[in-house]
Amino acid sequence: MRVATLISLVTMAVFAGCLPSDRPGMESEQDATSAGTGSSVATWNGGQAQAEEVERRLLEVPQRRGATAGMDADARLDTLVDRYRLASRALAVDSVLLDSMPDRNAALASLDLTERYTSVRIQALLLAYLQERGAAIEITDDQLEAYYADHSDRFRAPGVVVLWNIYRRHEDPDDPAATTELLRSLRERFLVGETFAALAREYSQSETRLRDGLVGDYKAADLPPRLAEIVFALDELEISQPIPIKGGAVLLHVSEKTEGSQRSLEQARPRIENLLRRRALDDEVAARVRDLTPPDGSMIVSVAELEEVLDGGDREQEVLVIGEYRATAGGFASFMGQATWPDGLDPGDQSDEAVSQRLAHALRRLVERALLYGELVRTNDSALTADLRGEVEDQVIDTRDRMIADEEVRRRVEKLADEDEVQLRNFYADNLHHFQSQLRFRLRRISTPLNDDSIGQMAALELLRERLIDGELTLEAAAAEIGGEVSDLGWQEPSALTSNARTYLLELGGVGFAIPYVHDEQEIRLLQVEAREDPRTLAFAQARERVLEEYLHRNRRALAEQVTEQILAEAGYRFYEAAVRRHLAPPPS
Q1: Across residues 362-368, what is the average pLDDT?
Q2: Rounded distance, CA 450 to CA 248, Å?
Q3: Are 478 and 528 in contact (CB under 8 A)?
Q4: Candidate from 57-66, 332-341, 353-362 with smallest mean pLDDT
Q5: Which of 338, 343, 370 is nearest to 357 (CA)?
Q6: What's residue 384's pLDDT?
Q7: Same domain membership, residue 252 and residue 191
Q8: Which of 365, 386, 407 represents a domain boundary (last residue)?
Q9: Distance between CA atoms of residues 477 and 461, nearest Å
Q10: pLDDT tens digits, residue range 564-575?
């Protein structure tokens, strides 16, 4: 079994597609032969790349399926030779950079890679152990059949609809029937031959009008239950009656509909077998670590804290520390996506309680993995054979070296860009529209809790808005009349606002009072724009960091090639194309 490398191999991705037109460093067949390279496809000062080593590297780089379809034999051979060239260049760069760093652990520290490397080592050991134990678990036909019988509804391919909509806000909250009548007239126009797309473009007040009203492909589970019931009751090419929703009404149209179908036990077998094996493996791990406790200094967030961290969006915040094992919010989210589902919980249940149960279950499994790692290290577990341990160690060392070389290339690229002041200033001058300050609003807000008479509340606040515009009221006086609160939000960029607030402020244009809107189905808000600051071009000194970031984003590949060429030239890199062609297509005997 080969243990998968867990860090992306960035080097080949950086070098791919950067073939110089003059192919420097190539040598003739005569040169390669006289150099005595044997199966070498490239050499450099103090090193060489064997064909077998290059081929192992090539296996790590996925190729687009059908990339050579339609090519004749000569063209396919040329393509493969180019791939060998790129792989040998990457090997040469890695070798040269690593040879300049004899103390690899010190290099990890100097490049700020120690923590990342530790995570790779931990995950590689755990993966090897879990793969070995999982392969030993047998799932019987009786277990498969019992699970299928108990959960056959989970093996039904869901029906899918292609959904379109036309949404209209109530122009007059006191007269919602006017909105319904307009949509009903649009429905009649569709039934007599007008296209839904044309009607949506002209009349819809949803952003989907930019896509002719297309909402997208939906399964029933993707929609709120009430809406799913309406949508999936429609036949293909059918249109709904106007549907009242908060603040307006909507027409729905289904252009395509695929009915669901039941998968057989044989079709579901691989999925069930994998699930049962993973659950058995989870139970085995849980039993092994049941009596273990986290060492001093450990930190495990509560489920409530975990929900708060995940909602906050900081993927780098740590949520678990047990010995050497550390997990960030981003790492936990990835683990949760792979973890088994809690027993007895319906996968379609998206309630707050169900979500909390899933989080608690995944957190418990992650703690068990962390404790298992500590136990494997402590006991030098015999479940990992000497051969497997050696393979894990080889993979980890290989990954460590690749990480060091990749990071060194990345730093050289960024240094090259940062030191080229002329290029940065030219790039800034050519792209001034990218380096502007953000549109900003200085905002104040009235907020009032939503009650059962939301339409009446909205109408009252709209009347207050008119008086505010006429200067008859202050914001504080308006809030007092409706039992609301005033908040001073200061300067805000549109990206920091909710989509509703952003839409209404941009429609407002300048200073003034935006129309009231419902927020999170809990309160009604009205925004006052006290001042507006339009975007302005930043001076180069103010924008330099953004200029560098954008310049790197657009030119990283070319800069990486420049760094690569410098490294290879200094190392005396030579690629033996004739030897590669002979290796790939040896002459007939």
Answers
A1: 94
A2: 16
A3: no
A4: 57-66
A5: 343
A6: 66
A7: yes
A8: 386
A9: 12
A10: 999 999 999 999
